Amino acid sequence: MTGKAKPKKHTAKEIAAKVDAATTNRGGGKAGLADRSGIEKGGHAKLECPLCKVTAPDLKTMQIHHDARHPKIPFDESKLNNLHATKLVAEPSSKPKPGVRGSLKN
After folding, report:
1. Phi, psi dihedrals of residue 82, rounded to the nearest 5°
2. pLDDT (tens digit per residue) in 31-79
3. Is residue 62 part of a domain?
4. Does 71 fall in a domain?
5. Gap between the Cα atoms of 95 and 92, Å rounded
6. In angstroms, rounded to a whole number, what is the distance separating the alpha carbons of residues 32 and 90?
7. Torsion of CA 55, 59, 65, 66, to 10 degrees
8. Total-model pTM
9. How many domains does the chain fold into?
């Protein structure tokens, strides 16, 4: 005999919610960081504020940000950085990288 109207097993809705939470990118971790930064084409961050480097997905959101954070400066959409148009390429550094424990090997 079971308890007071408590189901014995998980419902299909509960299982579907758990699967959705486990498989959907919620913006955390390395995948979320790449998505927010707009490095990969198709990321959510398309525009970057030239004043404070905050990213936004579209022009309207960037204008809302600008009106709230920089009210004394007039909004000029030509100064915005389009992160999808520019490709960020990592430049090779001339400095040697440290070893496993942080010391440079000679």
Report:
1. -90, 110
2. 777 776 666 655 677 888 999 988 888 899 999 999 999 999 999 989 9
3. yes
4. yes
5. 9
6. 19
7. 110
8. 0.48
9. 1
